[in-house]
Amino acid sequence: MPEMFPKFTTSIKLKYVKLGYQYLVNHIVTFLFIPIMVAVSIKILKLGPEEILTIWNSVHFDLVQILCSSFLVIFIATVYFMSKPRSIYLVDYACYKPPSTCRVPFSTFMEHSRLNLKDNPKSVEFQMRILERSGLGEETSLPPEIHYIPPNPTMEAARNEAEIVIFSAIDSLMQKTRIKPKDIDILIVNCSLFSPTPSLSAMVVNKYKLRSNIKSFNLSGMGCSAGLISIDLARDVLQVHPNSSALIVSTEIITPNYYQGSERAMLVPNCLFRMGGAAILLSNKRGDRNRAKYKSVHVVRTHKGADDKAYKCVYQQEDPQGKVGINLSKDLMIIAGEALKSNITTIGPLVLPASEQLLFLFTLIGRKIFNPKWKPYIPDFKQAFEHFCIHAGGRAVIDELQRNLQLSADHVEASRMTLHRFGNTSSSSLWYELSYIEAKGRMKKGDRIWQIAFGSGFKCNSAIWKCNRRIKTPTDGPWQDCIDRYPVHIPEIVKL
Amino acid sequence: MKLHYLKAIYYFGNQAFEGLTTLNIKEHMFILLNYFPAICGRFRRTESGRPYIKCNDCGVRFIEAKCEKTMDEWLEMMKENASIEKYLTPNQIIGPELAFSPTVLVQFTKFKCGGMSVGLSWAHVLGDAFSAAEFMNTLGKVVADEKPNRHINLAQMKTKSTNTKSPIKIMEDPLSIKRVGPVGDNWLTVNNCKMEAFSFSVNDTQLSHFQSKISSKGTNFTPFEALSAVIWQCIAKIRPESEPKVVTICKKSEQNKVDGNNQLISVVKADYPIVEVDPSELAALMKNASFDEREKIEIAIKKDDGVSDFIVYGANLTFVNLEEVKCYEFEYRKQKPVYVGYRLDGISDSGAVLLLPGPPKNGGRTVVAILPEDEVIELKSELKSEWFMD
Question: What angle do CA A342, A348, A350 make, to 5 degrees?
């Protein structure tokens, strides 16, 4: 017991020291400014009122000088305001909630797996082990055609799934934002593995009768991080087009991509990927400034494709029987960790408070010059952000990021619960996580959110948002009927 | 009861399922299954080997099928060869993997004319025909948007049979059941010969004719007793070497309405040759057979913790009284079934006879006999000649 006390008191002392240091460095300008102001005002007061008046009168007020200086001021101000990038606001977003008739409990998944792979009991056992450790719950959904034994993936079925998911999300979004189809100027749809002709964005234009001069884009093949790529693209297009709204739809269509073979490395996506989709409305209109939920602060994209191992780590290919599936390599987590480090290195200077950046700089210098054995300092991102949305790619991804960024269980709760309730819905999972945080009533005005997504390529993309207004706990949305049951404890291994 | 399977086929005309997609039909079934969690589960074995159902939301197997004949053509074909009806029901047994074997399967077969048949395969271990009919009737209620008055709860306590105060004596197995070799995880009865089913209807006039012919000394027999006595004698005639002297009778129990296997199982023994006796005596025997063997059966099962395997239907010639099964009450979108067929699978060699209510427009009864295939033709001719039935 006595041993605990010294440690306890030293840790408290350390904590206060750290706090003091942070406060000092982050507000250094104020700290420097105040003494200077005090000194100046004392000096002025010492002079006395008559002296001040004489100094005042001695300054010549020439007309030309006044005009020139005011012109200069106005010029500089105009240049500043014109070159400032437009503020991009996220007006609102909506997530698709699959009906409970599409749900796939563990027992159903295993039974179907056993019947579809009846010649490969080892593969079935492998799937069972993956499912037990996956972190998924019993309410995740697969599209209706996949419920057949064997699955029945026709193109028509894939289009049906796309229609149901995308149109529901967009209808929900239009209801929330009260926007009319004619007001949408930019449309971006991203769906990695299903890319028909005409494209999914053309499908949306056709259904909602969007304008003929709409700027539409369809991103395919870009993996689970495509959602943030779409956001980045929308931001850039909105810089060029003033007074516009952009509709972004992020989804992944499962029907044509359910792997029907028995190679183990390619069976993993079957266990994790589930039906889901989200629609987001971005805007740079002045009028939306007050009603928008979030303001976009930064989007940082990192691409590790130049490295061969990273390029091949999520690879779609045919198995020896000719069945197409996605092969996940064994070093996926290592590559993800490296991509994350790259991304953090870019993001750090943009968002971290000065105290953390200084510390990082000192340890970096120290490691280079003094002693390479010093542990690299991992900046404390918890000081820069209140909420973290980590792409629910799988339990391993969330665990890895929690470890790397030294996050607590509370910070990753949104990601884990989204993985449990909806599975890996690919690019739209970030929006389900954000919806979870709102549904729990934890989002306050001024909160900063960091969305991190990984995707094939290998890419690591981050988006940073700031909460723009007070957000009432929503009464609709995908978590509406189950939020009270969450958070749930997810055991390491679920016994099936 | 685990080796027996109940098969029911409901034939509907075109209006019942017109314009409905598979997804529409499935949606209603999802709501229905909320009320029957045990049906959605799968079997597991405890450490001692006794099977139990784990309610893991696995669900009911759904099969879609198409038939190139119209429903009328099919019903005509059935008159000649009733065994084709097996194509309208799923025929999967429980096993070899208990954990992946559904206990209830449903097959929707669409006919060329637009009619639809709903084929149900129901593992008898879940409940008797009354429970199965209740399941289908609840589906009808769900489709009509009525709330079924069932509680969604798993804890359905059966009223326990009164415990005998005497210690469990090593008794002989009761006559109504037969022990079968360990079936392991393949819940299938092994027969020495192929069993075939055939059915015939008895309309109201024929029925009252029967009853009056058999009634003697003023005692009135119920349709079940009358028909069973007649059929017992006919079967005895076609089995001269091994007259069925012992007959098992299964009737609806008057007691609790909880789902499950609640039938009253009793045994009738005749000590004299059946062929020569007057059918009214046989009917009287059946009327007076009121000794419920269920307790004895439970004791026999408990002897080794429910691990060994037994059969009831077919251990002796079995007569099952399903007159009160509400099979014609299954209404899909206000359409009643045109015809309902019932069968039992997994019957052992002695065979079984089921007595069902007849179609509402004809009244009377439908009799389904499941016998070894070489006895079927003989029985048909026997019934025709003796009792002028077709």
Answer: 120
Cα–Cα distance between A319 and A327 in angstroms, integer?
Answer: 9
- Token pair 């008559």 is found at A50
pLDDT at residue B160 in the model: 44
The structure tokens listed for A190 are 């991203």
Taking residue A408's Cβ as centre, other Cβ atoms within 10 Å add up to: 10
Asked if A224 is an active-site residue, the reply is yes
Q: With beta carbons less than 8 A apart as the criterion, state whether B319 and B353 touch.
A: yes
Name the nearest CA neighbour of A278 among A493, A395, A451. A451
First to last CA, chain A: 44
Closest CA to A434 of A381, A386, A389: A389
Q: Which residues pair with B265 in a beta bridge?
A: B250
Q: Any residues with CB less than 8 A from the CB of A204 and at least 6 apart, and which?
A: A166, A170, A187, A189, A210, A216, A247, A249
pLDDT in tens, B254-287: 765 667 777 878 888 777 777 777 777 777 777 7
* B23/A105 Cβ within 8 A: no
Q: What is the mean pLDDT of residues A99-126?
A: 91
pTM: 0.88
In chain A, what residues touch B58 (CB-CB under 8 Å)? 105, 107-108, 111
Using one digit for the tens of pLDDT, what is the confidence trace for B88-102?
888 888 878 888 999
- Strand runs (DSSP E) across A28-107, as ranges? 89-95
| CA A226 distance to own-chain centroid | 11
Assess A105–B contact: CB distance below 8 Å, yes or no: yes
Residue B62 and residue B25: Cα distance in Å, rounded? 10
Task: Identify the bridge partners of residue B332 per DSSP, sorted by sequence position.
Answer: B335
CA distance A111 to chain B (A): 5
| Best CA proximity match to A380, nearest among A26, A112, A1, A121 | A26
Secondary structure of B180-206 in HEC code, one letter for each residue: ECCCCCCECCCCCCCEEEEEEEECHHH
List, in order, residues 6 or more apart from A315 with CB less than 8 Å away. Answer: A326, A327, A329, A456
Q: Measure the CA angle with vertex A303, ends A301 and A306; round to 5°.
A: 160
| Cis preceding linkage at A150, omega within 30 | yes
Planar angle of CA A449, A453, A455, nearest 5 degrees: 170
CA dihedral angle for residue B203, residue B208, residue B209, residue B210, rounded to 10 degrees: 90
Q: Per residue in A308-336, is it b (16+ CB within 10 Å) or e — as a string?
A: eebbbbbeeeebeeeeebbbbeeebeebb
B349, B192 Cβ separation under 8 angstroms: yes
CB atoms B23 and A144 under 8 Å = yes
Residue pair B356/B364 in contact by the 8 Å Cβ criterion = no
Report the candidate in B337, B320, B319 with the shortest Cα–Cα distance to residue B328: B337
Helix (H) or strand (E) holding A68: helix A63-83
Reference A179, options A229, A112, A248; nearest CA is A248
Cβ–Cβ under 8 Å, residues B116 and B107? no
Give the separation between CA A487 and CA B3, rounded to whole angstroms. 44
Q: Do A107 and B56 touch (CB under 8 A)?
A: yes
C-alpha gyration radius of chain A: 27
C-alpha dihedral sign at A109, A111, A117, A123 = positive
CB contact under 8 A, B58 and A107: yes
Residues A109 and A492: beta-carbon distance below 8 Å: no
- Chain B interface disruption, residue of A100, A101, A131, A145, most B CBs within 10 A: A101
Crossing angle of helices A200-208 and A155-177, rounded to 10°? 50
**With 70 as the cut, is the pLDDT of residue B363 above it?**
yes
Q: Which residues pair with A451 in a beta bridge?
A: A389, A463
Q: A204, A187 in Cβ contact below 8 A? A: yes
